Amino acid sequence: MTESSCAALCAGGGLRQCPVCGVRGESVERLTVAALTSGVVPPDQRYALCRQTDCEVVYFGEDGTVISGRRLNVVPGFKSRSPEALVCYCFQHRRADLEAELAGSGTTTIPDRIAAEVKAGNCACEVRNPSGRCCLGDVQEVIQKARALRGSRSEQKEQQTLPGQIGTRPG
Question: Model pTM?
Answer without folding.
Answer: 0.76
